[in-house]
Amino acid sequence: MFTNYFKADLFRAKKMKSPYxxxxxxxxxxLFSSLALLKFNLGAMGIDMEQFEEMTSNAANFDxxxxxxxxxxxxxxxxxxxNVEVPSLSKLLDKGMYYYDDIxxxxxxxxxxxxxxxxxxxxIALFVGDAYSLGLNKNIISxxxxxxxxxxSRFLVVALATFVVHVLLYLFTLLSAxxxxxxxxxxxxxxFFVYFLLSWMLSCTFGFLxxxxxxxxxxxxxxxxxxxxxxxxxxxxxLSIVDHLLVKNCGLPESMKISNYTIVQNTTMLxxxxxxxxIIRVICVCVIYSALAVGISCLVSxxxxxx
Length: 307
What we know:
The structure is a single chain. By secondary structure, the protein is mainly alpha-helical. The chain has one domain (2-35, 98-306). It has 14 helices and no strands. It has helices spanning 2-15, 18-39, 49-57, 62-75, 89-92, 103-112, 115-133, 136-141, 147-180, 190-217, 220-231, 234-250, 263-269, 276-301. Helix 2 runs antiparallel to helix 7 (115-133) and helix 6 (103-112) packs across helix 9 (147-180). The model is unreliable at 68-81 (pLDDT under 50).
């Protein structure tokens, strides 16, 4: 029966129009991000690579906002009363921070841009939400005693969708590098394959969370809004503010920050050649969040009144 449920959900996902539109949107977002990463010369504005890496690795937390504010002050220091030369468009669109880098480094920068989670949040919310809004879930569950299999089949489709999007993101990164970078340097290595797997696990876990929210709320709107907010790092930002207050006022150790254990923060912190500690933390985060999302969804599906 599980195989039949999976085939039915997979067929329904293929028949939806939104995946093809969202893939086109993902391509546009990747090309736009690549323009900023590969062609936009931040050096002309007084920002070096070290400052840029520090900002992007902490993009979704309070420390990242502080770094951006401090860098903005440094760049504009001494502006008052002076004639400041504004960089021309030709200098700004020249050679970006990642112009000379290899594909794994550019791919890591693209993942930090959070384009894929945004696309996944919309698709998964629509895919799971349709089962409730169209009455499909009630018809299917009423004919089976193993309701958890229906939920698990959808989560398997979600996992497959996240993998497809991850592969597409890599292919779009190759395309953007071919168009805008100095050259396409594949630089395959064991570290990159480990990074690819871990980053997909984080993406898959994020998809499970959105699917779980859609299953619990039975609302496409609620799950889309929540998924988009999560992909943009709003939860991580709120937790990082709490962490900042706890560190400042209560002496909380830096290693115990709550925001370090969110999916978005781990996605931005993870890099090619990550340490064993980072790898273990990512795996634990993925296992815990995935188990909670799947487990709660299965428990909710067993209640007849919300079938």
